[in-house]
Amino acid sequence: MSVQRDADAAIPNQAPADTPSNTPAGAPADAPRPRGRLLGLGVGPGDPELITVKALRLLKAAPVVAYFVAKGKKGNAFSIIEAHLHDAQIHLPLVYPVTTEALEPPLSYEAIIADFYDSIAHVLAGHLDAGRDVAVICEGDPFFYGSYMYLHDRLAPRFHAEVVPGVCAMLGGAAVLGAPLVYRNQTLSVLSGVLPEAELKRRLADADAAVIMKLGRNFDKVRRVLDELGLARRALYVERATMANQRIVPLADVDPMASPYFSLLVVPGEKWQG
Amino acid sequence: MSVQRDADAAIPNQAPADTPSNTPAGAPADAPRPRGRLLGLGVGPGDPELITVKALRLLKAAPVVAYFVAKGKKGNAFSIIEAHLHDAQIHLPLVYPVTTEALEPPLSYEAIIADFYDSIAHVLAGHLDAGRDVAVICEGDPFFYGSYMYLHDRLAPRFHAEVVPGVCAMLGGAAVLGAPLVYRNQTLSVLSGVLPEAELKRRLADADAAVIMKLGRNFDKVRRVLDELGLARRALYVERATMANQRIVPLADVDPMASPYFSLLVVPGEKWQG
């Protein structure tokens, strides 16, 4: 054991001097080599300038930069940070094995995606064990419907993990729509367009203000519910808010067959005349 | 009329060359002098590094910088951006005339605060009419329970207004708590601790994940509701998340008489084992 420990100690710390690695409090006493940190970096809703100063600093200093991407795509997250990457970094695209949850049996989205996260976590753990910090790039905010969460849940118990919050898509949307979202003591409900129609209706009827995400092929259902509740006049729609190809379209003019995943609806709270 | 127009045109544009002002589409044809832009800048939850690159750029370039502050206080928003201010800028503290909503009749919080926003809007309009951009500094995000919203509602109909979204307090809180907030198609409810106990209970019982803001003297009531719903084991509490004096305290140990306004509770969604 002591021989092994000495051998480990002789391996130089591979983390650059400007990215100190913290050893978590729970690390075993016989692991003297500093391990890398897992960094979940929120990079904002799309406009590359909406990254925070902190995320930018940690991104530039990270020896390994990982980002989720759909098969055959460049990826929005990658586009946001591309200009800041440099050749000395290891770039690690994390390519989703499936892009839709609708699969024919015996295929199961849940099983395939769980295997995918397991295998990514294994790869990242290798870098962390070798003393390299790993920055996982997250569109919007890492803990707000972000794929990073599944890596965090797998790795945070074993490694030092730090999350840098980001500007989430719904606030990027409210900003470009010029729509103050919630006043004073109003309640905000953030809903997924995937929800069943009856549940969407019940929750929207009870909300002071609401944001509906994950529209895509759910758009038609959501618009119908807004119409039925008399909320259509207050609802505002935007595609790819703050991105270069952003589109703001009146609700009635949206083509339900062409609404992209990165679209959202905002129902702002009633203005307070204070 | 034409004499007046010529006289106006002879007044030099007072906006610095590096901060071009946009004339709104609806500006009258006889107002050739470019007017300033109203900029609502989200500067994040407290850590000065959690400002976005865009907000920082616009802040540095703005000839007038306004920020809300309580009487006799320096102000959190000011602390976040203080290091970036320079002497060539006009600094405009907007001092709240009252700090509590509980006033003795005939005083009315609503009336006093409405007068306050009216008079500030008048001052800012003066700068905008003179061609100076005005940056209003907003802790967190401008459209997420921000005082900026009341200025926006008053001034956006008359001036070009642009909002730069920011990292909101609840995402700063989730990040420092290491708490993934919402998975997949979970619903997030953002609630004010000011709500009546029965309404809080009803809404929390129906939420997949929740954030409760504006705790302060409402803390005891909120904790009781969490206890009754069996949510106390999932709830996480933080004061002044991401600020230098941040405190994370187990729910049971919070002193209800000492919970500050800038504290919040997070009830994360149940983990998805994908």
Strand-helix topology:
The structure is a homodimer.
Chain A: H1 2-10, E1 38-42, H2 53-61, E2 64-69, H3 76-81, E3 90-95, H4 109-129, E4 134-138, H5 148-155, E5 161-164, H6 169-177, E6 188-192, H7 197-205, E7 209-213, H8 219-228, E8 236-239, E9 247-249, E10 263-267
Parallel strand pairs in A: 1-4, 1-5, 2-3, 2-4, 6-7
Antiparallel strand pairs in A: 7-10, 8-9, 8-10
Helix pairs in contact in A: 4-5, 7-8
Walk me through what this model shows.
The structure is a homodimer of 274-residue chains. By secondary structure, chain A is of the alpha/beta class. Chain A has two domains: 38-167, 3-Layer(aba) Sandwich (Cobalt-precorrin-4 Transmethylase, domain 1); 170-267, Tetrapyrrole methylase, C-terminal domain (Methyltransferase, Cobalt-precorrin-4 Transmethylase, Domain 2, 2-Layer Sandwich). Helix content of chain A is 30%, strand content 18%. Chain A contains eight helices and ten strands. Chain A has helices spanning 2-10, 53-61, 76-81, 109-129, 148-155, 169-177, 197-205, 219-228; strands at residues 38-42, 64-69, 90-95, 134-138, 161-164, 188-192, 209-213, 236-239, 247-249, 263-267. Chain A has a five-stranded parallel β-sheet, with helices on both faces. A five-stranded mixed β-sheet of chain A has the order 6-7-10-8-9, sandwiched between helices. In chain A, β6, α7 (197-205) and β7 (209-213) form a beta-alpha-beta unit. In chain A, α4 packs across α5 (148-155). Chain A is globular and about 60 Å long. The termini of chain A are far apart. At the A-B interface, α2, α4, α5, β5 and α6 of A face α2, α4, α5, β5 and α6 of B. β6 (188-192) of chain A pairs antiparallel with β6 (188-192) of chain B.
